[in-house]
Amino acid sequence: MKKIMILAALAAFTLTSCVGVLNQEPMSSDVVGSDGFTNPTYRLGQLAKIYGSFNITGTDGAGSTDIAVGDAGASEFIRAWWSINTLSTDEAKCVWGDAWVKEIVSNTWTATKNDAIYATYVRGIMTVTLANNYLRSTDDSDPEIAIERAEVRVIRALAYWMLLDSFGNPPFTTEADPMGAVKPKQATSAELYAWLKAELESLVSEESNLKDVHTQVYPRVDKGAAYALLARLLINHKTYTGAEDVTVYAEAMAAAEKVIEKYPLATEYRELFMGDNGQNADALKEIVMAACYDANKTQSYGGATYLIAASTNNNNNLGLAAGWAGLNTSTQFVANLIGAATDGAAIGDNVEKFTTTDKRALVSLKYSEKKDQAIDAFTAGWHVFKFNNLHSNASDLYGEHTNVVEQFASIDFPLLRSAESYLIYAEAKTRIDGGSTADAKAVKCITDLQKRAGLNPAISSITLDNVFTEITRELYWEGLRRTTLIRFDKFVEGSYVWPFKGGAESGQALAEHMKFFPIPDEDLVANENLTQNKGY
């Protein structure tokens, strides 16, 4: 089933919500028992719905939503998850006046309902529930269905990782639990980590029905996605278990190596995030798993549509006919990408100037009035043009176009790509070796990324600081910043601050409990098995 087939199925089988979504009820009126799954069209529609649960918001197009938040676009899983994991960090701020936005950008959220936190939680639970129902209603007796079931388990694992990483102690159910009357039990972060580790190890085993690494047709997942997610889980194990285990880093290296072996780096970094990335053979060498978008078939105000539109105030920029003037970033963060070149940057300078320093520095001052960031003025600060809806063969990629723009983006959002596995391998080996390493393969993982960026590395060893810098340059704006800062002891600590951290203009330390977000109050009321995270 190729990308276009999945998208066509999504058009027919869009997501709908249920009353009491967190009480293990069916996800919608068309989520039925095993009888419905005997119809191949229905079954494939449900598979498409599970794949599309990251980026579809409702039954009536981009302006509809099936969960209780104030804005349909903000209810999308990718957008909500990206927002809480990016706007809460040094990577970006949003200048809009919505209450939930102000809380996230200033790190002042509480247990009171916040739309982005709530949407991330509910969408994650919805994906898990859809997956559980699919697995409960099918079996492995048919070889093709067995493959589909294994793919569904990978998607469920990713949703559970998002819940684990964001909330620590979410409710937990599998297909073994009856649907309907039974309220989910709460898993501790250590318990969910252990379950995810075992589940992903099962999915990459010889007995697994998943197709081998990088052999499934895009955008369906195979063992490559399971290995990549396993590597991500393992490198963050201390966050979830509370204790560092050096032996786990060796396991992370082994999982990352499986990805590196079969998913070489794309030649051009920027093409990984352009409007034709889902059809670009070079980009698809590196993209392991993505949430698929199409301007005509999966319209959403989330995903790259949000990331582009909110990063510009011009309706004819980056191949998208929308300029929402929302997202900016600080000189401090951009200095991570281009160093002292920020000093010589002038208002009006565009991407082409900064990519001469590092090809990954897809930043601009084109729509800025000053470089110093503010959280109430779009033109105060830098803007990130990493996502670009133009095709890779377009001319003037960062200029203004009036004849090649769409209302929605067709950029597939990379959820997993091999560059992350390169970085995980290097980081894990560096941690094993006590904070620095001269291991040739670990060093090569870093230098390969630097060479792709147009740099000329001449290094024989790396430190954790080197790895952190490279993660910052390579993975910015991909939803992983908060996770990375926590892992490197930089998220709540006062030793690493950024503008407006903790609500202070110059930044300040955060309370320890803010490493995780609160469980939504309404779920606590509906399910007595759940308790709130500490500190809320």
> How many whole angstroms does the radius of gyration measure?
22 Å
What is the percent of helical residues? 25-40%
Task: List the total number of helices.
Answer: 19
> Oligomerization state of this entry?
single chain
Decide which structural class fits the backbone.
Answer: mainly alpha
Q: What's the N-to-C terminus distance?
A: 45 Å
What is the spatial order of strands in the main beta sheet? 1-5
Spans of 5+ residues with little confidence (pLDDT < 50)? 7-31
Order of helices and strands: HHHEHHHEEHHHHHEHEHHEEEHEHEHHH
Shape: globular
Largest sheet: 2 strands, antiparallel
**Mean pLDDT rating:** 92
Kindly state the number of beta strands: 10
Strand content range? under 5%
What does this structure look like?
By secondary structure, the chain is mostly helical. It is 40% helix and 5% strand. It has helices at 3-12, 40-52, 77-86, 99-105, 115-137, 143-167, 189-203, 223-235, 237-241, 246-262, 281-284, 303-309, 331-338, 351-354, 418-432, 440-452, 464-475, 481-487, 521-526, and strands at residues 93-94, 171-172, 185-186, 287-291, 327-328, 363-364, 383-384, 413-417, 436-437, 462-463. The strands form five sheets. A two-stranded antiparallel sheet has the order 1-5. Helix 1 (3-12) crosses helix 2 (40-52), helix 6 (143-167) packs antiparallel against helix 7 and helix 6 (143-167) packs parallel to helix 8 (223-235). The longest helix is centred in the first third of the chain and has 25 residues, at 143-167. The termini are far apart.
